Structure formats: structure tokens, C-alpha cells
């Protein structure tokens, strides 16, 4: 297993390019299954989760054609089996995203039920109930969700999500695109990735409106036609590099991104004392050598502060001036990084869903272990300011969501290297 070794102390300074969004690319790849011909998706990030989705397509008999710039062409007409097997689903929960498209387009799907996860229980009951509302008959048997569309196909439905769910909204929106009649999805997730997916569906001829609000209306169409689509930039990757620069007192310009999709994060960075300037597709953060001030953060569905940036802000608070409270309201077990940060000298107290972080002037390098994707990002951020070397184990978690993290950080002047293990 590869490890990262980071020698802390370098003040980050430079420019990097932001990759396509993982959490947009995954549902968009799943949505290609709805099309009646070959679809091209561009700006895919080079990430392990994307490879897993492509492998899943391979298992179903679809051979995606990938060019050197990681554009992928997918022809869903070559599908041979309607099964997403457990070996793949257990490595990536987002595999559940093929459920809605497969039932809608092919009338049947078998998708392994994702189990528990390092950050919480993460049930998929809403995905199942949404499809049932559209007339699908669903049995959960032998660890698999077996879903069958009614005679004549799925029917448009009114569905209310009792919890805001990103992939739940995406799954039902994709299924509704090919259902008979109108679907109205209430209490939908408003995340920019949901909007990106809706734009992709519309590019293929779907009739989706209201994405980005809590009510999405989908008028089902008979078929979707081929299109070429470019995935939006990754707002969490963007935010992670901004925090990395902030903790080191440095400066970073992130390019090929979109400042309008992470306003809650930019506000908190300004509150922490950063100078933030933005253009149409770039953001520059400058700390002018200052130590950040601690901030209070409460995660909630978009447009509020994202849970996927919570761990990074715990790292920011850990070296900030003052004390900050970080409240996690989305996942029940998303503080695993805290116990690793303790090993580096961070002063963090967890009580229920709240972490009280008291900033200290210095952290100390230590061997630590990555437990999930965003937790790993927080370990990297803390290592950048810690005295001495930090050895981060289990970095396969990082490779799921951060494209070329060590190259990008090296371009900003960080002392980071990967060691095969
Ligand atoms: N929930 C239910 N029932 C369901 C679905 C969700 O109770 O059927 C609950 C979850 O247990 C959780 C809450 O609803 O408490 C919100 O979960 P959501 O369904 O929104 O999460 P997700 O769709 O599984 C996506 C991202 C996550 C991100 C969350 C929250 C993708 C592929 N994943 O997950 O990304 O944290 O939304 O914004 O889009 C990451 O990139 O590191 C990551 C974990």
C-alpha cells in the first residue's frame, strides 16, 4: 500500500488547475445508460472511483472507449447483463447510481445493497422508495436490490424525500427522465452536481426543470439521444487546496473552477482572515503569512457548508488562533480524522456531533492513517504545517477523490512524496 511522506513547514505559493468533479462525473456516467446511442463525457477526473465506475460498465458488457485526455465514449446499447455485483459496489457506494437508469431504460436491475461505511450508516431506502413510487417492484434478496419496472415502463410520480439526499435525488431524477408522464421531486438536493446532471440529461433531450431548487420537475420522454458533455469543476477539490494554502499562511490561485459553487466555504475562509479574490473561472486566496483565525462551522445540505469540507476545516482550526466549533449534521460518524490529528498534537474534543477545536501554534509530524477520503485530505493539510515528517498510510482513500494530489501540492511548493509500500 502506497504511503505519503510530507515534510511540513513550506508556505504554499502558486497556481494549479482544478479537475472535473468526482461527484458529478459518477452520476453523469451512470446517466449515459439512459441514452439510445453513444455518449461522450469530457473532463473526467483521473480517479480511482471513476475507474471503478468504468470497470462496472465493463462487467455489464459495455466497453467504454477512453481517449488520452480522459474523455470517455459509452454505448449503452451493448449492455449484456443488468447486474452490479457486490465486489464492485462494496468498494464504491456510488455504484447505486446505476439502479435508476437501468430500471428506467432496460426494465430491470440487480444492484448489490451497499453496506455500512466509515462515515455513517448511509442507507439507500429513499432510492428504493422513489423507484417504488414510480411503479417499480423491488425485492431485497441475498444482499441485492432487485428492481423490475411495471409493464409499459416506469410511471411519473410525486415523491417527497424525507431526508435531503444527493445521490437519492440523482437516481430518481434519472429514472424519471424516461418514465411515462410527469414526476415532481420535493425536498430534492440542491447541490451543483445535481444541476450538472440535470444539464446533461437535458443535453440528451430530457425535460428536467427546477434542478438547483428543492422541487425538480421531470416530464418523461420516450428516449434520450447522444450528446457530448463536459463535467463541471470539483468544488471540494477547490476548497481543499484553498484551505491547504490558508493553513500554511500562503497563496494559491486555483484555475478552471467556479467560485459561485462554494460560497459558504469562501465566506468561512474570509472569516478565517484570508484575502479571497475571484474571477469567472478562478479563485485566489492569500493569507499574507498570517495564521488563520478559528471559525465555527455547521455542515448542512447545499447551499450551506458542505460535509465534504468539514475535515479540512477541523485541520484549519487545529492550527488557528482561538477556538472553533465544528458541527456535523449529515453523517453520524464523520470525525475519524480527529483521532489521527490527536496523534499530531491537535487539541480537539468531540461531543456527539460537535468537535471543539482549540488552535495550537504547532502540530508535530507523526505516522497517521487515512480512514476515508475527506479525512485523508485533512491529514495532508495538517501535515503541511506540522513540524517534521508525517507518514500517511492507507492513501488509497485519497486517490479515490484527489487527482494527482502530490504533483499539485509539489507545484505549490509542498514537500510531499509517495512511497510504494
Ligand atoms: N440518507 C438516508 N436514506 C437514503 C439516502 C440517504 O437516510 O436513502 C441519509 C444519509 O444516511 C445521510 C444523508 O441522508 O445522513 C445525506 O446523504 P446523501 O444521500 O446526500 O449522501 P450520498 O448521496 O450518499 C453524496 C456524496 C458524498 C457527500 C454527500 C453529502 C456522491 C457520490 N457522494 O453522498 O460525497 O458527502 O452526498 O453531501 O455524490 C465524498 O465525496 O467524500 C462523499 C462522501
From TrEMBL:
Keywords: Cell cycle, Cell division, Cell shape, Cell wall biogenesis/degradation, Cytoplasm, Peptidoglycan synthesis, Pyruvate, Transferase
Residues in Enolpyruvate transferase domain copies: 7-409
Keyword Cell wall biogenesis/degradation: yes
EC number: 2.5.1.7
Residues noted as binding UDP-N-acetyl-alpha-D-glucosamine in the record, renumbered to the chain: 93, 122-126, 308, 330
Stored InterPro entries: Enolpyruvate_Tfrase_dom, Enolpyruvate_Tfrase_sf, MurA_subfamily, RNA3'P_cycl/enolpyr_Trfase_a/b, UDP_GlcNAc_COvinyl_MurA
Source organism superkingdom: Bacteria
Catalysed reactions, as listed in the record: phosphoenolpyruvate + UDP-N-acetyl-alpha-D-glucosamine = UDP-N-acetyl-3-O-(1-carboxyvinyl)-alpha-D-glucosamine + phosphate
Main subcellular location: cytoplasm
Pfam hit, one: EPSP_synthase
2-(S-cysteinyl)pyruvic acid O-phosphothioketal modification, residue list: 117
Key word Transmembrane helix present: no
Pathway: Cell wall biogenesis; peptidoglycan biosynthesis
Molecular function via GO: UDP-N-acetylglucosamine 1-carboxyvinyltransferase activity
Catalytic residues of the enzyme: 117 (proton donor)
BP terms from Gene Ontology: cell division; cell wall organization; peptidoglycan biosynthetic process; regulation of cell shape; UDP-N-acetylgalactosamine biosynthetic process
Binding site for phosphoenolpyruvate: 22-23
Gene3D superfamilies reported in the protein's UniProt record: Enolpyruvate transferase domain
UniProt family annotation: Belongs to the EPSP synthase family. MurA subfamily.
Purpose of the protein: Cell wall formation. Adds enolpyruvyl to UDP-N-acetylglucosamine.
NCBIfam families: murA, PRK09369.1
HAMAP family attached to this UniProt entry: MurA
Name of the protein in question: UDP-N-acetylglucosamine 1-carboxyvinyltransferase
Organism: Pseudomonas saxonica
Amino acid at each position: 500500500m502506497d504511503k505519503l511522506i510530507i515534510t511540513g513547514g513550506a508556505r504554499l505559493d502558486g497556481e494549479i488547475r482544478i479537475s472535473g468533479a468526482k461527484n458529478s462525473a459518477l452520476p453523469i456516467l451512470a446517466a449515459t445508460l439512459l441514452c439510445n446511442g453513444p455518449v461522450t463525457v469530457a473532463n473526467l477526473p483521473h480517479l480511482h472511483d471513476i475507474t471503478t465506475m468504468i470497470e462496472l460498465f465493463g462487467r455489464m458488457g459495455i466497453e467504454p472507449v477512453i481517449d488520452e485526455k480522459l474523455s470517455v465514449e459509452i454505448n449503452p446499447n451493448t449492455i449484456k447483463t443488468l447486474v452490479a455485483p457486490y465486489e464492485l459496489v462494496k468498494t464504491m457506494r456510488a455504484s447505486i447510481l446505476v439502479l435508476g437508469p437501468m430500471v428506467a431504460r432496460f426494465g430491470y436491475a440487480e444492484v448489490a445493497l451497499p453496506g455500512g461505511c466509515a462515515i455513517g450508516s448511509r442507507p439507500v431506502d429513499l432510492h428504493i422508495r422513489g423507484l417504488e413510487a414510480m411503479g417499480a417492484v423491488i425485492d431485497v434478496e441475498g444482499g441485492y436490490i432487485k428492481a423490475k419496472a411495471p409493464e409499459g415502463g416506469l410511471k411519473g410520480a410525486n415523491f417527497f424525500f424525507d431526508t435531503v439526499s444527493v445521490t437519492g435525488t440523482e437516481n430518481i431524477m434519472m429514472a424519471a427522465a424516461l418514465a411515462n408522464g410527469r414526476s415532481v421531486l420535493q425536498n430534492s438536493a440542491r447541490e451543483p452536481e445535481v444541476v450538472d446532471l440535470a444539464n446533461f440529461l437535458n443535453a440528451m433531450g430530457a425535460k428536467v426543470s427546477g434542478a438547483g431548487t428543492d422541487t425538480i420537475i421531470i416530464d418523461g420522454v420516450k428516449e434520450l439521444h447522444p450528446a457530448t458533455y463536459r463535467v463541471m469543476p470539483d468544488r471540494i477539490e477547490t476548497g481543499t487546496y484553498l484551505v491547504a494554502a490558508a493553513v500554511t499562511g500562503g497563496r494559491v490561485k486555483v484555475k478552471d473552477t467556479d467560485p459561485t459553487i462554494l460560497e459558504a466555504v469562501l465566506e468561512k475562509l474570509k472569516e478565517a482572515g484570508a484575502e479571497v479574490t475571484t474571477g469567472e473561472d478562478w479563485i485566489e486566496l492569500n493569507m499574507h503569512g498570517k495564521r488563520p483565525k478559528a471559525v465555527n462551522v455547521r455542515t448542512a445540505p447545499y447551499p450551506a457548508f458542505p460535509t465534504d469540507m468539514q475535515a479540512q476545516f477541523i485541520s484549519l482550526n487545529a492550527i488557528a488562533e482561538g477556538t472553533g466549533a465544528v458541527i456535523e449534521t449529515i453523517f453520524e460518524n464523520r470525525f475519524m480524522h480527529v483521532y489521527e490529528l490527536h496523534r499530531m498534537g491537535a487539541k480537539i474534543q468531540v461531543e456527539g456531533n460537535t468537535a471543539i477545536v482549540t488552535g495550537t501554534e504547532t502540530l508535530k509530524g507523526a505516522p497517521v492513517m487515512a480512514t476515508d477520503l475527506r479525512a485523508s485530505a485533512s491529514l495532508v493539510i495538517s501535515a503541511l504545517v506540522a513540524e517534521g515528517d508525517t507518514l500517511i498510510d492507507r492513501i488509497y482513500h485519497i486517490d479515490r477523490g484527489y487527482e494527482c494530489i502530490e504533483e499539485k501540492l509539489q507545484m505549490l511548493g509542498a514537500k510531499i512524496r509517495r512511497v510504494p509500500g
